[in-house]
């Protein structure tokens, strides 16, 4: 199941684990990324906490944790090569995997159509 | 037969500084410019531009303006009242010898001192290289991985290190440990910085430090009284507790001693003053900060890095700009901008000039002199501590203290008074045998230096074993011809005010007159230690008082503090003054600061540092403060309202008519008004912040009052306040002993104040007012000339702008694929520094010509801008390729010309667009610099030589 947040994150939810990244729209707005800082595996976050940091030559911004949960895996490939986030934001450019504290919370997030409408 | 010549007296005034030298347009040129604008007099334009409601009632006057010669005579008179003695006071400020080749070719050279901060890397390659040398020097000496370039002074660098430690530390503690051997001014500034953020400062003996109770600690090395200690073991304990270790190190000592990096320190900070920059009664000098690689992205300040240009050649640039306050705003943790670049360049050149052998020899001799001094005092029966030291010793003198200090002063030597029974002294590069013998006489001994054998008193375990300054740049031939040419080569790469107008909006790049600059290197100003007894600095006192009085007259305030040594520092100091006022009134809870979205990025960052909660107020479409939102927010937060921060004229370059109302609203809700003085160049003589209703402002003396930008500092940001705030201005441990210290020295960068003062003397009140009017004329003239080609944004209702104008280049992006960057880089081909880019509105250019530019230079600039518009039109109309065109390929270099020319436009068009000089063409030394490459592949020290060879191949 693919979900989105108004803060331009996407979540691919598989069971109680969500793979999280930033949307194509967000990646385009930021421009060429030069640095990504990811959370530690095992860290717990509440919805809205700063979970990761991205820097482009234009802006530095936080990536918020979209739901309550615990980090189970991070994508080291994007810290080594931040351009992956620009070239494939909704695929190889994923940020981290989150074990959701409450699977049902995801239902309240946007679906793709609603997200695309919000940025149109 | 020729007709007889009639003799008559001319009314031309050759010595009128204001109208003939400082102000650019001649009366005839002004008449032409006014005609284009449709006015028959300058005053008519001003009446139409500056709202009547804010105009000051009385004209600005303080006696007749002086000629250059009269002002210099007056400064000599003042200089004589400063006593130029030898100072061994130390405490962070040491005698040093500025190599004459550096003094003349850098400090006294407008090619270096009139440059702006290196935001446009292509035209800043020279000073970027010098700053990269600085970073290499600092990383080598400190043994750490990455250094910035540079910070304001050692004490504020310590405060920045503390804030950074809090950010990166894994410890949850909210206290910071400060070695009791830190310089007193460092401790004072740390206390000021910690208080609003709720951090506790624990001062004590490092041996008693409890690592678990702090998020970090700072140690002084050598200590302020001379102690040397290996901090390795304490640092290991701090790390075990997740805390950060900072060492404040004297870089000259590091030439002989184990480095902070080798002790495991995470951060090293300190002052590079004794690398060839005079003490200057407290400044300016460059401070440094170096950190472990893991923390480089958390480091405040500017970082020069290595990237490549469009041809793949090496090019330098400022790295990691997105960490800056102007982008992070209320999330920022530091408000530091570029700082002290000119002084950092001097320090780096001192290292290039001397090389590692020279630096080591200087350090050894300083140490040797300290050992001799100690031996003489011991021979007289005094107890000297510590047993092992670098340059600083402390002598027990008991009740003889006053007697010895007076005797030393009679010998023309200043020593440091410590408590009531000790005397301290720090030997330096300038100390001579006669200095030592004079001090011995003051202590009652009649020795000669030759009476004692030289040896070492450095601790064996702390002797430096690692190499430094190994890069070839520090191993040039020592001939002065080499040095002169190296400095010249670098400055030739840069575009400064000595070559062309720098129309940077909000930066006020006006004339820095030579007569204003001369006094700063007179020894009576440059070689006075900041902590000499007051009676030795009466000249400074008189100048400080008179300058303060004049600035009060200009602003309508009642008191000034000269302590803040940058504009951002002034904002911070002003907000602290407001904070302390509220606390004194029993209203400590007032912590909300209203800031419009259009504010300078440093505003929210400074508010953050002052412990305030930033509430953002909307701007209307025309750039003004949204009054409805302002009223609503002020009311909503009335209970906790501390202040608002506004800029006037607005950052959009408009005189808002609602400014008085804003002040009234804030006052009605119990708050104070901070009016950012960044745009004071549009107000001097016409309107006064104090009359409009503001309570405190900082003035950027490096904008409005002629201190040169130095390629990114020094600046000065003194603050003026209304009488009710005066008791809460910054204090200093060496003067009044009050708290709130924001800078290492009591009067900031005192030695550059003669620049602003002589400007005031030579202009007179009338000249200053005329300067403001002409600044407004010049900006309106540019707006009028560019009209039609570009839209001018945010003009007032009648179409007038203040002292700057915003030109919209965004339409070109859609119509021709031309970005604001393309326009900026194409201006380089025309021989210009670009205006301010993408601020305050993304995709636009903000142009501020200042009063100092002549009509001819302004026309040259306008011609260039109009030609660029035509080039874009050629793309729009399909006559020029969208990707391969002079705008996208700008700037053009000699490399472009000598290579294969396969472009759809001529070499002539590439290199000689309107504006460019034929003979005196400025050639960009590199093609367009790749920002992304530089940030992805961060290199912040001089690259190894092999890389140079590769680049050449």
Kindly list the characteristics that best describe this protein:
heterodimer; A: 120 residues; alpha+beta; 6-stranded antiparallel sheet; 9 strands; 38% strand; B: 953 residues; alpha/beta; 7-stranded mixed sheet; 4-stranded antiparallel sheet; 26 strands; 37% helix; 11% strand
Description:
The complex is a heterodimer of chains A (120) and B (953). A six-stranded antiparallel sheet of chain A has the order 1-2-3-9-8-5. In chain A, a hairpin with a 2-residue loop joins β2 and β3 (17-22). The model of chain A has no long low-confidence stretch (mean pLDDT 92). In chain A, 21% of the residues lie in helices and 38% in strands. By secondary structure, chain A is of the alpha+beta class. A seven-stranded mixed sheet of chain B has the order 2-8-7-6-5-3-4, sandwiched between helices. Helices cover 37% and strands 11% of the residues of chain B. With 953 residues, chain B is an alpha/beta fold. In chain B, α5 (100-107) runs antiparallel to α12 and α13 (401-410) packs across α14 (433-442). The interface between A and B is small, with 12 and 11 residues.
């Amino acid at each position: 199941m693919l979900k989105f947040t108004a803060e331009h994150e996407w979540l691919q939810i598989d069971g109680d684990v969500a793979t999280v990244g930033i949307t194509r729209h967000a990646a385009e707005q930021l421009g060429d990324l030069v640095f990504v800082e990811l959370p530690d595996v095992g860290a717990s976050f509440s919805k809205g906490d700063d979970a990761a940091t991205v820097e482009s030559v234009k802006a530095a911004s936080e990536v918020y944790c979209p739901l309550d949960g615990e980090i189970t895996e991070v994508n080291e490939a994007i810290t080594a090569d931040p351009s992956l986030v620009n070239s494939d934001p909704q695929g190889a450019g994923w940020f981290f995997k989150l074990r959701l504290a409450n699977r049902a919370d995801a239902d309240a997030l946007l679906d793709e159509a609603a997200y695309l409408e919000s940025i149109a | 037969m020729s007709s007889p010549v009639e003799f008559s007296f001319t009314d031309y005034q050759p010595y009128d500084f204001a109208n003939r030298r400082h102000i650019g347009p001649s009366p005839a040129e002004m008449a032409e410019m006014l005609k284009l604008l449709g006015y028959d007099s300058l005053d008519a334009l001003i009446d139409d531009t500056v709202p009547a409601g804010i105009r000051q009632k009385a004209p600005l006057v303080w006696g007749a303006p002086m000629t250059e010669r009269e002002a210099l005579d007056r400064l000599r008179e003042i200089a004589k009242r400063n006593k130029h003695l030898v100072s061994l006071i130390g405490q962070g400020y040491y005698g040093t010898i500025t190599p004459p080749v550096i003094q003349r070719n850098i400090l006294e050279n407008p090619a270096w001192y009139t440059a702006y901060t290196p935001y446009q890397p292509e035209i800043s390659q020279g000073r970027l290289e010098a700053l990269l040398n600085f970073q290499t020097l600092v990383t080598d000496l400190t043994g750490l991985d990455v250094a910035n370039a540079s910070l304001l002074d050692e004490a504020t660098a310590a405060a920045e290190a503390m804030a950074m430690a809090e950010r990166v530390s894994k410890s949850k503690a909210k206290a910071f440990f400060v070695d009791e051997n830190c310089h007193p001014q460092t401790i004072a500034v740390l206390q000021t910085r910690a208080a609003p953020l709720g951090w506790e400062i624990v001062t004590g003996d490092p041996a008693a430090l409890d690592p678990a109770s702090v998020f970090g600690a700072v140690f002084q090395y050598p200590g302020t009284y001379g102690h040397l200690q290996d901090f390795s073991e304490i640092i290991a304990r701090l790390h075990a507790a997740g805390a950060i270790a900072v060492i404040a190190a004297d870089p000259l000592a590091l030439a002989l001693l184990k480095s902070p990096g080798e002790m495991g320190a995470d951060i090293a900070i300190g002052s590079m003053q004794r690398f060839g920059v005079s003490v200057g009664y407290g400044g300016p000098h460059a401070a440094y900060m170096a950190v472990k690689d893991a923390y480089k992205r958390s480091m405040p300040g500017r970082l020069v890095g290595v990237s490549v240009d469009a041809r793949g050649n090496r090019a330098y640039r400022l790295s990691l700009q997105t960490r800056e306050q102007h982008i992070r705003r209320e999330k920022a943790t530091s408000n530091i901008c570029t700082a002290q670049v000119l002084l950092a360049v001097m320090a780096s050149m001192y290292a290039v000039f001397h090389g590692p052998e020279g630096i080591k020899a200087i350090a050894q001799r300083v140490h040797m002199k300290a050992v001799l001094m100690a031996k003489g005092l011991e021979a007289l029966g005094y107890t000297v501590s510590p047993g092992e030291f670098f340059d600083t010793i402390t002598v027990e003198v008991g009740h003889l203290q006053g007697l010895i200090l007076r005797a030393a002063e009679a010998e023309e030597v200043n020593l440091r008074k410590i408590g009531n029974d000790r005397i301290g002294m720090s030997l330096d590069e300038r100390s001579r045998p006669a200095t030592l013998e004079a001090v011995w006489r003051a202590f009652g001994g009649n020795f000669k230096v030759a009476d004692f054998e030289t040896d070492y008193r450095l601790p064996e375990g702390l002797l430096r074993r690692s190499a430094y300054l190994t890069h070839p740049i520090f191993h040039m031939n020592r001939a002065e011809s080499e040095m002169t040419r190296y400095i010249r080569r670098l400055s030739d790469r840069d575009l400064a005010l000595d070559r062309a107008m720098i129309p940077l909006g909000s930066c006020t790049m006006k004339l820095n007159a030579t007569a204003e600059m001369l006094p700063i290197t007179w020894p009576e100003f440059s070689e006075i230690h900041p902590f000499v007894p007051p009676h030795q600095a009466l000249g400074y006192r008189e100048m400080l008082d008179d300058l303060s009085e004049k600035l009060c007259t200009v602003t309508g305030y009642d008191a000034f503090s000269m302590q803040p040594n940058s504009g951002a520092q002034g904002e911070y100091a002003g907000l602290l003054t407001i904070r302390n006022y509220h606390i004194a009134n029993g209203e400590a809870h007032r912590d909300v600061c209203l800031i419009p979205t259009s504010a300078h990025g440093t505003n929210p960052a400074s508010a953050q540092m002052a412990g305030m909660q930033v509430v953002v107020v909307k701007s209307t479409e025309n750039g003004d403060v949204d009054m409805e939102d302002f009223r609503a927010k002020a009311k909503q937060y009335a209970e906790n309202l501390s202040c608002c921060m506004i800029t006037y004229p607005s950052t959009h370059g408009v005189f808002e008519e609602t400014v008085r109302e804003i002040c009234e609203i804030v006052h009605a809700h119990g708050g104070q008004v901070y009016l950012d003085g960044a745009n004071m160049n549009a107000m001097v003589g016409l309107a006064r912040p104090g009359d409009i209703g503001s309570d405190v402002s900082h003035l950027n003396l490096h904008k409005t009052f002629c201190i040169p930008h130095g390629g990114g500092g020094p600046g000065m940001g003194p603050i003026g306040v209304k009488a009710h705030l005066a008791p809460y201005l910054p204090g200093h441990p060496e003067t009044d002993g009050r708290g709130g210290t924001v800078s290492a020295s009591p009067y900031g960068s005192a030695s550059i104040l003669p620049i602003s003062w002589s400007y005031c003397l030579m202009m007179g009140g009338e000249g200053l007012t005329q300067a403001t009017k002409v600044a407004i004329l010049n900006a309106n003239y540019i707006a009028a000339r560019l009209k039609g080609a570009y839209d001018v944004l945010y003009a007032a209702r009648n179409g007038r702008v203040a002292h700057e104008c915003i030109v919209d280049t965004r339409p070109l992006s859609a119509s021709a694929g031309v970005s604001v960057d393309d326009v900026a880089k194409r201006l380089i081909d025309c021989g210009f520094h670009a205006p301010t880019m993408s601020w305050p509105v993304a995709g636009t250019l903000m142009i501020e010509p200042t009063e100092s530019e002549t009509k001819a230079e302004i026309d040259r600039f306008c011609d260039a801008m109009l030609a660029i518009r035509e080039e874009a039109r050629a793309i729009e109309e399909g006559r020029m390729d969208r990707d391969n065109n002079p705008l996208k390929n700008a700037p053009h270099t000699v490399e472009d010309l000598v290579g294969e020319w396969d472009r759809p436009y001529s070499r002539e068009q590439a290199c000689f667009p309107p504006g460019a000089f034929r003979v005196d063409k400025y050639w960009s030394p590199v093609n367009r610099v790749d920002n992304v490459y530089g940030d992805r592949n961060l290199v912040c020290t001089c690259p190894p030589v092999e890389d140079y060879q590769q680049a050449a191949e």
